[in-house]
Structures
1.
Amino acid sequence: MKRLALEKENSATIGFVVSCVFASAIDLPELRAWADHVLVTTDSCPVYIVDLSTFDDSLFHILRVIGFVPGSGLDEEEEIALVGIAFARGREQFEPKPTKQQALAALAAHPDILLRFHDTFPFINVQRDSSTRPK
């Protein structure tokens, strides 16, 4: 069983997941699927994971459920790369800042973010076809 960073003192995993939600790289059903995945694949996890497995509230309540503000360890360019994953998945942004081209360029410049995404969400397949690559 793998060990995840889900505690306040070491919150990189849950911080990455929350960043993915806010970047629209994943949606609420996928957040719940991730929580279910954690419950099945880890020896022990915080109680909030059970709460996230049924979470169906406004996104701004997610930090209340978790009980602390997790840190993702991502810099600004890596956060933009998460938006690139959202675009690569066909998820348009309400007010795209960064632009689709900027986000996809950041994703191309940070392939480690896509690898981390695949490692964190092994049940989600991200295809980058020619229409989602930066021009």
Note: The radius of gyration is 15 Å.
2.
Amino acid sequence: MTALVRRLEQAWFAEAPASRLAILRIVIGVYVLWYLVPRHGLLTELAESDPSLFEPVGVVSWLAHPLDPSLFHLLVIGTFAANLAFLLGWRYRISGPVFALLLLGVLTYRNSWSMIFHSDNVLVLHVLILGFAPAAEAVSIDSRAGDRDRTGWQYGWPIRLMCVVTVATYFLAGVAKVMGPAGWPWAGGGELLKQVAVDGLRKDVLGSAASPLMFALQDYLIVFTALGVGSLVMELGAPFSLIDRRLARVWAVSAFFMHWGIFFIMGITFRYQLSGVMYAPFFPLERVVVWFRSLRSGSRATSLAEFSEAKFR
């Protein structure tokens, strides 16, 4: 029992450098800013829609009526401001949780006016984890310039949790497939082909062109069989990727390319996945900081040598 507990502690509370968690904060903070800013107009329009279209879900399900549009507009502006503070690591003990909760509220409110964008779930969960973790103790305004990169379990467990959340979403997707009407025969490719065909037909009928690749592959059931088997292996086998770091990185890269395959065949855009940012927790991002510091110190040393040479020439 003691050995099992020790293994669990090593898995969940493995040490990691503060800079790795900080780089994750920056990368995901930049992504959220890129994602939200172009949608400012859309969010404003949704808030001013017919109240009869409002069907609250999630954390806003307690609302009996829509928020006043001006109040929601202020919340969106506040989210942008908190996003910048989160990204820069400024007053993070306040800005981190505030941004995480505002993002959860704003995106849930957006989903209450239209279809539910399940692809946003992992993004929000990642931000919630980072918002309540010590993710600004390096590479931030809060951290002191020149501080040495610290290492500790307090920086490792949030990263581990982010990986587990990512893996869990794929595992649940796999379970949903085999527990659905098609069951395990879903791997045969026929159900996947039907799904792709229906999606392409819907796009053509509604005026959005279907992917040309879908038409090129529709007569090749073996291709969809391979894709069906591959997707189930990747989804149901996702938890095994947590056993080994190298295996986890192979899985992350494979999942990334799977989503690009979905995009080319079906034209479905999972932005967080396609950007690759979703899989950032699986990689040692602190190497970017090490590389940058070595580059900067190398440039400083070169400049000093050139100055000395010019002085004594």
Note: The two ends are 71 Å apart (CA to CA).
3.
Amino acid sequence: MSPTLPLTRLQVIGVPSFGRAAVQAGQLDVLAYLSAGVYDQAQVPYDYVEPAMPPPAGAPIHGNSYNDNVRYNGEAGAVVAAAVAAARRANDAILLTGGNCHNATGVLGGLQDAHGPAARIGLVWFDAHGDFNTPHTTITGSLGGMPVAVCAGLALPEWRERSRISAPLPTDRIILVDVRNLDPAEERLIRATSAVVAAPAPGFPGQDLQQAVADLAARVDMIYLHIDADILDAAFVPHHLTREPRGPDMRQVLSAVDAVLATGKVAALAIVSVYFDGESDADIQSGVELVSGALRAWKRHGTPEVHTCQR
């Protein structure tokens, strides 16, 4: 098992968001984090970079053909993967902000690129949705509901391969936290795999998160912790494109985040899909609180010592 080391240096990767308000939403959340000084909460040196993401093959992205969007997600994943791999080879911890759940394939691809396809990577996915759909299970056809299935090798290999994922992620290394809104066929698919559904807080459905995370941490070299802001109850993210009611509050989510970071195994953290659209800045405030709270916890608990694969 890899020993835990103090969090000593951070690479922040800011990615623009797409969706309602398009790039503006991503620019606003990324700029809000910088202006609020949230990255200083880690109390370690950090570099900030905004990778040059490929332009969508038309405007808006969701108006393109299905295959164009799959290809674009793979190309965007490759850009994120390159940034993640470069930072991991420099032994930096990774924080991705802005962007959306599509970027998860790039984070996983970058970790594999740096540490090798045999690296034992675990994924802890905080989201109101499973994002475990395939083209055969989805109701809406949205690619935003598929990145976990893509990472696991269950769908859209072009997206996965372009994102530099050499080895699909075994489903017994996936914990889905909350996922209170699942398509019926998506839920059946999850139940047919070894993925675990865990509760974000007492009183919510799912396995005990602390026990599930402890089991995962004992079997992996590192963890990628992914947080979609819509895990929060809709009151905290009123402009989120996929907000859902009856979710956990900020205190409950940050407590669950702390439980994952307490393993000392988190090498990469993404906090995505924080939108600003309207007169209220509640979503940005929630994003700032999520990033700040997570960084303070990460500083307390540390990160794994892992070796990179030299290429």
Note: Residues 4-304 form a domain with the Arginase; Chain A fold (CATH 3.40.800.10).
4.
Amino acid sequence: MPSSDISGFHRMDLRKRVEIVKKFANLTLQEARLLKHNSALGLKTADMMIENVIGTTQVPIGIATNFLINGSDYLIPMALEEPSVVAAASNAAKLARKKGGFTTLSDPPIMIGQIQIVGLKGRSYKHARKHILKNKQKLMRITNKVDSTLVKLGGGVKDLEARIIKTSRGKMLIVHIIVDVRDAMGANAVNTMVEHIAPYLERLTGGETRLKIISNLATYRLARAKAVWPSEELGDDVIEGILDAYAFAAADRYRCATHNKGVMNGVDAVAIATGNDFRALEAAAHCYASADGYKPLTKYERNEDGDLIGTIEIPITVGLVGGATKTHPIARTVVKILGVKTAQELAEVMASVGLANNFAALRAMIKEGIQHGHMKLHAKNIAVIAGAKGKLIDRIAKKIVAEKSVNVARAKELMERFRRRK
């Protein structure tokens, strides 16, 4: 099996990088060409995906190397516009390899569908809840008839819950159907199910159903990852600094928001590349982090050997069937590069990337400040904006970073100077 530990990947030209990915993932010539083609998402396909289409846009797709997850090598496609995130994930993964890489665990792909019941008249909410639970098995059988294919694949409704909540509009009875969605994200299947069961619940309770929709807070669908970074590689000062930074995030929500943003840098980038709903992931992650006050999604501590242990627990709702994952040609190719076979495996990969990016951000801030890596890459953008081309881009970028004058005006001055010398 080929290794994802690729030395100097970031220094290779685009053609060479694509060739390596092609070989690693056994891509066809056509699939490899798609990665370089500016119109992989044709307008006809785009027009079927959303409304009012006038064109398409793109963000860069980079490959994070060095990832060893549960003993297997992965190349991780990441789609985003922010400099240094891909490099940071790659560096964090390389350091983690020395202690076995990432180990992961995830829950089955269970989603929650919610039905809101209001306006109960002549019967107590407690009585209505009791009546629903008494008929739970019957309600589950009725709901599972909606998607017999999902049931045949081992999915479908696995449980039903009911709870009473107090709101500014009075009491409400909230029914949850607990659905195993297999390799789907689950929104379409679950939303169809809750709409189907709503009339039965109205007849049982005498109330009216209002909202019937999936919940993005997937507390039954958590992904966990763990990595160990060796003390001899980091040094005691860096480890102590990371532990202090983690304690800061755990105690202060202003810092914690940025801490968790570092996690989502990685999670979202993989979600976008694979055609998954990163907005649902963001909502779930931050809501989950707020269960007991707003807390970090990651945790750091030292083991007996003095190494740094990082862990993450995060709800990740992704799919490999349906939606843009199957519609978008680049998303299909990205999934092939990843080599994931199930939605659970994809979730575990994403949790690993989120942990890697969070660790890398903390390490960078402790060692050199977060702007150092950002500015090195941003300087190339500035050089291009100034009009530089070819090798001149790297020369100007290097100079303006060294001068700490990363601006277009200085880049233009340098470009003219280098051209006169030439």
Note: The two ends are 47 Å apart (CA to CA).
